[in-house]
């Protein structure tokens, strides 16, 4: 039995960021690896995910992060896929590939009960972190459960060239939306949305007010909005909403680095007259949807009807840079660190 190496390289949070995180808030350290013990796997991580929600876990403001804050001077955590190199767990052998939550590090010792076997023959390993993983499930849950998508809806998605947004827009189209509109932060991303991902219209939110551009893109209003941004996007969506419209509050990345409470949508009272539904969501509440999600989405992936993009950062040294890039819009689709 191969014993784990004594240490591995792992990113630690060393200071709680105030406002925009900076590289000094993180340190890459040699970190002890637990002994293998019983029922555990030694995994060599191949890819790990860096996600905007992790910003909430870096602070310690109660009620802001929906998971407990990361401990200081401990390895960060998040989804990862890798290869089992040693196992003391029944049913797992070296060479297996698993999805688990000990990301931000090169090697991990994880309880087998917290690992899910994945099949690299059925889909590329990275798909289990993106289109077939939490990213895809977030888009699916937001549209079809939180915001009760109906065939014929006009759908607006913000962060539309990002991981969740690009999936939500395509899924809405596949399920019979009348019109799908996306917003993104560059002309290149806008082009991608319309020319490659099948959005009917898209706009660059940096070039003119969101409300103006949304009104132009959706002359008959919108019925459903998947909000990944908050701020002026949410306000514009409320304004453009048709009666009985539905909003899935999935994320508010425009506000994650704010040091003071941002103003709420100034037009929230419109939700009364329009009988709008605004509903927050956390993807982990939708684990029971996974089998249905997988059954429905896998054929779309196989047929190429649902495509996905990934931005890969190479090597563990690049992880913090990749994470910070999420707040600048450096990525297209899912951001992954490749080891
Ligand atoms: P992502 O969209 O791949 O990356 C973040 C994107 O946000 C960037 O590419 C950037 O694109 C955009 N952005 C950054 N700052 C912005 C700003 N000030 N205004 C507008 N857009 C900005 O990330 P993701 O993983 O798919 O997550 C997207 C959102 O969904 C996040 O808010 C995340 O917290 C949320 N989320 C929530 C759940 C849940 O369970 N509730 C699950 C997954 C994700 P541009 O170039 O277009 O600006």
UniProtKB/TrEMBL annotation:
Task: Give a yes or no for keyword Oxidoreductase in this entry.
Answer: yes
According to the lineage, what is the superkingdom?
A: Bacteria
Write down a Pfam family by its short name. ADH_zinc_N
Cross-referenced CDD domains: PGDH
Q: Which GO terms describe its molecular function?
A: oxidoreductase activity, acting on the CH-CH group of donors, NAD or NADP as acceptor
Q: Does the keyword Kinase apply?
A: no
- Protein name as annotated: NADP-dependent oxidoreductase
């Amino acid at each position: 039995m191969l014993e784990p190496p004594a240490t591995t390289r792992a990113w630690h949070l060393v200071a709680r960021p105030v406002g925009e995180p900076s590289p000094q808030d993180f340190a890459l350290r040699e970190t002890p690896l637990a002994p293998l013990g019983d029922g555990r796997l030694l995994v060599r991580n191949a890819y790990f995910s860096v996600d905007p929600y992790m910003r909430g876990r870096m602070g310690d403001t109660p009620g802001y992060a929906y998971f407990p804050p990361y401990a200081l001077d401990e390895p960060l955590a998040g989804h990862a896929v890798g290869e089992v190199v040693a196992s003391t767990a029944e049913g797992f052998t070296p060479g297996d590939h698993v999805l688990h939550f000990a990301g931000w590090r090169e090697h991990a010792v994880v309880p087998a009960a917290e690992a899910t076997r994945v099949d690299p023959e059925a889909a590329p390993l990275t798909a289990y972190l993106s289109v077939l993983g939490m990213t895809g499930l977030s888009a699916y849950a937001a549209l079809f459960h939180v915001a009760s998508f109906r065939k014929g809806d006009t759908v607006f998605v913000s962060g539309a060239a990002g991981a969740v947004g690009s999936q939500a827009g395509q899924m809405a189209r596949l399920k019979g939306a009348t019109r799908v509109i996306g917003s993104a932060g560059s002309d290149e991303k806008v082009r991608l949305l319309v020319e490659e991902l099948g959005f009917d219209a898209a706009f660059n939110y940096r070039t003119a007010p969101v409300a103006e551009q949304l009104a132009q893109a959706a002359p008959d209003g919108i019925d459903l909005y998947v909000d990944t941004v908050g701020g002026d996007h949410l306000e514009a969506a409320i304004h453009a909403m048709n009666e009985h419209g539905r909003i899935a509050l999935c994320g508010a990345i425009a506000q994650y680095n704010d040091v003071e409470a941002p103003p709420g949508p100034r037009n929230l009272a419109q939700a009364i007259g329009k009988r709008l539904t605004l509903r927050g969501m956390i993807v982990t509440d939708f684990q029971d949807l996974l089998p249905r999600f997988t059954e429905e989405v896998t054929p779309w992936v196989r047929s190429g009807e649902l495509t996905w993009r990934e931005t890969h950062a190479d090597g563990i040294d690049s992880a913090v840079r990749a994470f910070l890039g999420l707040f600048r819009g450096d990525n297209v689709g899912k951001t992954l660190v490749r080891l």
